[in-house]
Amino acid sequence: MMKRSEDVEGRARELVQCLKKVKGEARVQTLKELHKIVAAHPSVEKPVIDSGVLGILSSLLGPFTSHAVGSEISLVVDMLNEGTTKTKRKCARLIEVLMGAESFRFEIVSSLSLLVGLLRMVKDKRDPDGVSAGLSLLKTICSHDQIRSSIVSIRAVAQLVERLPDLSPNSLESALQILDDLAAIPDGRSALKDCPQTIPNTVRPLMKVSEACTRHALSILWAVCKLAPEEFVSLAVEAGLATRLLLVIQSDCPPELKKQASDLLKLCSLNYTATLFISKCKLTRTMQ
Questions:
Q1: Where does residue 65 rank: exposed (0-12), middle (13-18), buried (19+ CB within 10 A)?
Q2: Which residue from 32, 84, 91, 269 has the least number of CB within 10 angstroms?
């Protein structure tokens, strides 16, 4: 049994080395065989990674030597959509690692199939680790301005907003950063405005999780309230925003964060008399 395991690992290492030398159809066949071995023998995954396969695959994702090789790489996206929860997590992490390579082109991760697959992972409440992996990759993808409209087009904004209340702190931070990035484009702001839960679900994390969460939440709330103040400012105040903004201003947060909170507080006060607005800011309502 041990001998067979060593043989499989040895063959996998040989194939990784072959990828450096072969081209065209031979490279396609090598990729296919390596994929079959790793799929059939999970224990081989770590030795294969240790042998430098990620760097080699990353170089293939630059200028493709053939359409066939590109198709083989796209198998990762297929596995992310159709594999087990464990497989999906590994595929998401693999793609994120590959995105760190200098030769990586953003077009590779702009496919709607990948984006939809990641949203499915984020929606799966049964797999918190998968949610975390999906959000982490989606956050990295969202850092590319060119892909943000595609993310908005698959209704990602509403789905992410709906998940905010029950995410872990790390996942919440990732989700808020994604929404903050999407709020930077007109389609993203419109999608946030059209989602009924945007205001309450974004007010809730202010000063309750982390400084990063507070920063992203403030930015999102500013974008929405500035877009349609008559419609959303009173809704935000009723959700407890004014009270939380006062907490930001009185905290040891960085000056730029306090300035943003102060500007938003001024915007919130415009539709109220001084007496009524002060009553809305009572600190007894702070952390309900």
A1: middle
A2: 84
How buried is residue 186: exposed, middle or buried, by Cβ count under 10 Å (0-12/13-18/19+)?
exposed
pLDDT, position 59: 64
Question: Distance (Å, rounded) from C-alpha 187 to C-alpha 189?
Answer: 6
Mark the ranges of the chain whose per-residue pLDDT is less than 70: 1-6, 53-55, 57-73, 100-108, 272-288
pLDDT at res. 277:
67
* DSSP code, position 66: -
Q: Could you give the CA distance from residue 92 to residue 90 in angstroms, rounded to a whole number?
A: 5
Count of alpha carbons within 13 Å of 8, Cβ hemisphere only?
A: 17
Residue 168: CB atoms within 10 Å:
14
Q: Which of 8, 6, 28, 133 lies closest to 75 in space, CA to CA?
A: 28
For residue 48, the model assigns a pLDDT of: 73
pLDDT tens track for 45-81: 777 777 776 667 666 655 444 444 345 457 778 888 8
SS3 (DSSP) at 155: coil
In whole angstroms, what is the distance from residue 188 CA to residue 151 CA? 9
Q: In angstroms, rounded to a whole number, what is the distance separating the alpha carbons of residues 46 and 90? A: 12
- Lookup: tokens for 148: 């943000």
Domain boundaries, the chain: 1-73, 193-288
Calpha distance 33→12 (Å, rounded) = 9
Exposed, middle or buried, 195 (CB in 10 Å: 0-12/13-18/19+)? buried
Structure tokens at 160: 């992410």
How far is residue 25's CA from residue 48's CA, in Å, rounded to a whole number?
A: 21
- Which residue matches tokens 């030795």? 47
